[in-house]
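Lecture 7 notes: from sequence to structure.

We start with a single chain of 355 residues. Read the sequence below before looking at the structure.
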Amino acid sequence: MSIQVQLIPQTKPGQQLQREFDRRLEAILCEQTRTAPTPQMAALWQQIIKATSGGKRTRPLLVNLGYQVVATDQDTRLLDIGCAFELLHTALVIHDDIIDQDFIRRGQPTLSAHYRDAALAQGKSQATAEHLGHSAALLAGDALISQALQLLHAACQDLACGQRMIDVFHSAIQQSAAGELDDVMFSAHIESPDLDDVLQMHRLKTAAYSFEAPLITGALLAGATDEIVTRLSTFANLLGSCYQIIDDVLGTFGDAETTGKPNDSDLREGKITVLIALVESIESAAGTVEAWRHGEVSNDAMRALLIAHDIEAKARALADECCQQARAELAQLPLSKAVRTTFDQLIDDLLQRNT
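Now the structure, written as tokens:
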């Protein structure tokens, strides 16, 4: 997930917090490298460090923002809780690349690609090298999830709300897995989802762990009431829906050089995106979509169908509707001016992003 907006004010304390997240994450990963039980595992952790470098730390900063919804001080546990979410994000991204059989992400080789290329250099066949690459990536994701859970449990174990925070984190993992499975099944055309099904899949796959869980966990750490948690949950899910709708738009109509992703990949992979669900809901277009599902209509013809029915504009209007509902939820939360401004900027950024 790429979010351009600064989730913390560009003040000295804000910049310091971002540096502290970076330093703490580096220390955690370096410690795993140092204590790895085998040289191969140490080398894998070194590749994981490369995979996390340069990130915007969106989820740790959302944990902090959730905390600021309720409190104005700083809790030292924010660092480890935020890093737990960053480790989880890295794991799910690595696993997603395996599922999609991708060896490039945003123009850079993935962890799978590193191991694949090393195997190819040793004379292994393409199939063997790719299997080795995906196997190493699978294990990297597993190790990251384990470390994320250990980090979160250690940070939360002595808190009155600690078990609830841990439950939120576990639920985010379960929901992400459920959403990813739906995505796989929909794209294999085993299921025939409608728009509500696709939006639910996105909520589970993306919103739950990228928006909802970080915000709620931070708010719980600060002592949030059930009412605040409920409103934040609704707000976060609307943000996640907006993010994913725009992501689907960029996956077909975005500039490939800007997004780092070919704008024909979703169609080539048979992805059931919001765009597909929207056009399939049009009676005169439903037959063409069904034929495309069975490989009887070309991807170029599907793109032409999307353009003919102005589906990009319809999808963007749906994203805008999600954001308007999110603003309505935001209006019901007792926020400081600085936090409210940051949330407003985040909503604007989600709608306007191009990567």
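The chain is about 75% helix and 0% strand. Keep this in mind for problem set 3.
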